[in-house]
């Protein structure tokens, strides 16, 4: 394997990226120095961070801060990262969901509720890692293409760190996400097109002098950014008492999150932090944007892009970069990739809120909807330890349920009016 | 002092309420057994929980869960409260706000950011305590009058606990709060009137057979409910390294939160958990609903009710029950009560988002706005340790900033279009 210096990348000391040792092509294995690069010069495959972890002990993690930096010895970040101005995401609740479990006929179910992050989605995790990389590489503008949640996470992280931001979104996003992302004072640009078109535009921009000094968290900082999702795996295992779940349902947009949860579980096993035992990973998509689910069901190894049409806009990536890896993992672990339609998404949002008091955005509705479908169809072991991810917040996708979630009545402030309204 | 059994209250064992020993009238000192009562039978004064804390040590608290139940030995809850189905609120971030501090000319500023709670407001704290009381008293319906945040907190808490809920709100609340509160599947009732009219209606309802079996968290469970705000004081002190801040700015709606933060600070001093040193408490109101601020400025001891007209709807209580106590505390501690207009509220929301990446609801805008006003006018010690509360989430009051928080441009996905839009 060649050890190639990426063009334009500055050499960095190892401490700036903690235990990370380099970047490696996921396709051909070519190794690169740590730098702001994301595609293999040999085969254009995606690059991934490699590590030399050394000895990592539970006690060291447990004595760390109650955010993702408790896992700094497993992430490409400097040892003093917890003291830097960032949003300190993570350590969100793992909610024991007995009432939902009872409705679904499952024995033990937990919800990993990432709506508790600073901007109320799991994106704060990945952006926090990309932010550190951006600082190290000397970028002064943080940028991204976004289906909405990332826009808010990048805007907020840049604001707190004192960086500029320039965020690109499809112009038809939910109003809540647009307003929130604008509130942080960075530059928000609406693009007439789908997320996939926004993403292609960002790749063009990065090759142009206009964007060459920018840190696009999910493009030229993507190898670092993606590692942030490993913290979901670490937290779930630690919160279960240093144990892997038997089965887990994860939403699939680009597919990156699912692949990194799997990577995180495998790292914990390799480091001896959890027992080595089998786990099954299930991917969840919305029917209106289900290229990975379709490929899974058809037995394909490649994913045919689609044009998204679903209320689950945060999952509306028609050409998911990590789709093939998701297929691999679902098949290797004995899981599956499944989808639900928009009606089922809304039902699942309401089911989760009614049973557990967790108000999820449409992506959470997709995941809980797929959980319900798998449980009903007998494809989950009802006695196994099950975890389902809620990656975002219902306040960002109110339109999805606004028609159904209304006051039971509007009355004058009198007992008579109350009696009349609720006579039966 | 008479030790009176409240009519209709069942006798409870002390362990069901942890260290709480009874209820005591804040006006005349009459003592009652713990029960679902809220007003003194002698003088109609408000009742407050009394305690026998015994020995409480920092280490015991520090080894507790990362939510308000770490302080269970200081709250009217059973020892096993952490294991019961509730939303486990609290232990929200104390954000070191260096960039905001620099803009305001302050040396050390922290934001206690309660938007990180499960339903994204401080109300989850108070509801969690009321929920335990409701369970102990055998209520099967959780109810409240609400300016919005409480509606969501009660709906979610009841859903998770498997109780029914019936929540009353002014019919003109922000759409986000209405939809969110409805999502949890309880009964939501819009009332044609102000919050104060909704509140009066609930008091009528509780005296009627319709509502006699209901636990109204902020009416017949109010003594328990209100204690939840003490946890803000405990967390701030612990997160500062077991130290009280020198000055703190707190929003004033009913005034209960401010009085309980003061109570919490005094308890910590009395228990020897923090050093006994002076602190100053400042109350913050919106000009359009500033009865306490007006009374403070006029040197009055009583608060003249007003009809609210402000975008800060969660603070729009025109007849604040704890107003006189707020005046006492502001004067006793050398603080003040101040107000800002709606324009300043919006400016403050944007200032906080731009400098720290914290997106506050209008109540947070009021508090940060008052902080800014006090700093500008030289009424805060710029060298003192300062804390400001953000009690809610910007996603719930998007309309307040939607006009100003928009994309910089909407363009086609091309470099030319980007160049044209941002030519200069």
UniProtKB/TrEMBL annotation, chains A, B:
Gene Ontology molecular function: L-serine ammonia-lyase activity; threonine deaminase activity; threonine synthase activity
Record key words, sorted: Lyase, Pyridoxal phosphate
Cofactor(s) named in the record: pyridoxal 5'-phosphate
Coiled coil: none
EC assignment: 4.2.3.1
Ranges of residues in domain Tryptophan synthase beta chain-like PALP: 88-392
N6-(pyridoxal phosphate)lysine: residues carrying this PTM: 123
Catalytic class of the enzyme: lyase
CDD domains given in the database record: Thr-synth_1
Similarity comment: family membership: Belongs to the threonine synthase family.
PANTHER family, sorted: L-THREONINE DEHYDRATASE CATABOLIC TDCB (PTHR48078:SF6), THREONINE DEHYDRATASE, MITOCHONDRIAL-RELATED (PTHR48078)
Name assigned to this protein: Threonine synthase
Taxon lineage: Bacteria, Bacillati, Actinomycetota, Actinomycetes, Streptosporangiales
